[in-house]
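Reminder to self: tokens first, then the designed residues, so the page reads top to bottom the way the pipeline ran.
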């Protein structure tokens, strides 16, 4: 099936509210566990950037699991960042989780200043997927940990509809539509392999941790 891009930013009041209130426990817990499993040797302190952080649920989970780390969530959506700020305050993490408004690619973001880069569900929003991989290389230092996860595009629209029924049957309509459109906009594993090779990141370990996700993890060249 051909990729069908969806709007890059999801920043309407309705979308951000539904997204911030949605239960992403399964995929966000999978993401956080994958980070800790892939990089068991992370030092006690460090700086991590989460690209396309959305409502910051993943930033908060990581901050709770890595108590010596400072997390910077980066997102282009003003409404989404407002939700993120509320969530960070509610978790009492405003001294360790910083939120930054930036539209990637952003050459103004400081170069090589993060020890780890993470991103979940941003790639399929980007008209040019290299934006994500190049931003990771811009922001990371030599040897920085990188973990990126996203949906993978199903074979056809029937398979996309089946995944929505399986995993979002009880979700609000706006979220079901977002999920369906995101599956159609997602990249395939072979497209990710091609992107990694173009970014000089072909050494990242690429896996499919569920029936709808791919996950790439590894370190920037030292
Ligand atoms: C599907 S959400 C994922 C949010 C979060 N990572 C999560 O897993 O819950 C994608 C986010 O990427 C942001 N985004 C899309 N394009 C962006 C860009 N070029 N620069 C920065 N953020 C972007 C959107 O505003 C949105 O908040």
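Designed residues (222 positions):
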């Amino acid at each position: 099936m051909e990729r069908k891009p969806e709007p890059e930013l999801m920043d309407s009041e309705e979308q951000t509210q539904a997204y911030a209130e949605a239960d992403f426990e399964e995929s966000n817990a999978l993401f956080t566990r994958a980070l800790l499993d892939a990089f068991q040797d992370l030092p006690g302190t460090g700086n991590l950037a989460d690209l396309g952080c959305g409502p910051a649920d993943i930033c908060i989970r990581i901050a709770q699991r890595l108590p010596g780390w400072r997390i910077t969530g980066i997102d282009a959506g003003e409404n989404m960042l407002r939700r993120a700020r509320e969530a960070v305050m509610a978790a009492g993490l405003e001294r360790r989780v910083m939120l930054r408004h930036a539209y990637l690619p952003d050459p103004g973001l400081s170069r090589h200043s993060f020890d780890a880069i993470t991103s979940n569900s941003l790639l399929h929003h980007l008209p040019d997927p290299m934006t994500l991989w190049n931003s990771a290389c811009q922001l990371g230092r030599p040897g920085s940990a990188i973990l990126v996860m996203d949906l993978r595009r199903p074979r056809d629209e029937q398979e996309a509809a089946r995944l929505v029924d399986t995993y979002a049957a009880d979700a609000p309509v706006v979220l079901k539509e977002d999920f369906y459109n995101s599956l159609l906009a997602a990249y395939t594993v072979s497209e990710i392999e091609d992107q990694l090779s173009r970014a000089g990141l072909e050494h990242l370990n690429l896996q499919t941790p569920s029936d709808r996700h791919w996950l790439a993890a590894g370190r920037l060249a030292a």
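The mean pLDDT is 95.
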